[in-house]
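Why does this matter for the project? Reviewers at the last site visit asked to see concrete outputs rather than summary tables. In response, this paragraph embeds two records directly. Each consists of the residue sequence and, immediately after it, the corresponding structure tokens. Nothing has been edited or filtered.
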Amino acid sequence: MTPAGAQDADLAKKLSNPVASLISVPFQWNYDHGFGPSDGDKVTLNIQAVIPISLNEHCNLISRTIVPVVWQDDIAGNSGTQFGLSDTTQSFFFSPKEPTAGEIIWGLGPVLLLPTGTDDLLSTRKWGAGPTGVVLRQSGPWTYGALANHVWSYAGDGNRSDVNSTFLQPFLSYTTKDAWTFTLNSETTYDWTSKRMVGSDQCDGCQTRDDRQATHQLAGGGSLLCGKFGQRSGRLRYTGRGHVSLPEI
């Protein structure tokens, strides 16, 4: 393998770590078909920004922001079409710069829900907060672990339902020597207020290329979503990621 190929593979593996000390800006595009009781359609562009901040010689603060741009049609029954911003999720992870003796990488911190939605059907109209955490291990070409959070609402529109939800995302990825990464993950959200669970199983592949100024990563895959009463819908997902290379901090 060439030195450039080895560098690409190393970066690809780092990008599999949610709390790596790398600035990255992923754009994740999801298309969901057969969604909701009226078999609606939904397109979501998740604009994400991951920014590491060095606190001291031992610890980083990783800021992870997700801003969804949504188009949807008949998602809540015969509800028509909506387009605009949905609510923003802002997470902060305090993470050691070095893995533990057992090669465990972890991060803990708060998660915030910001009611930035531009339509009533795109927003909870609630402010929320709670804990979030990630734990993973990287061994050879393998990366495996889980990310989780729980959000409670504490303010907002009193006519809207309270937010009390748990999110869990276990993941497993394999990175080849030529910088291909194949990932399996499951994303499950349980709403404790409505007693509803929505989950998806995702499989995708991506390749990483470094042109010395920026790293580009393109991923594609599909998944099956499951909701209340076993309702199922299909999902296509594509992710484009731009990455700015910085010295390790």
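We now turn to the second protein, recorded in exactly the same manner.
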Amino acid sequence: MGNKPKIVVTVVSSTGRKRCTPVRSIASSRLKPRLSN
């Protein structure tokens, strides 16, 4: 049950960020590849 709430929080935060600030979505997408590298 610990994994389910985590997935829900991720989805909610993703939609919330896209609706509230689309700019943050782009910035986070740019930071994600950098962290992966």
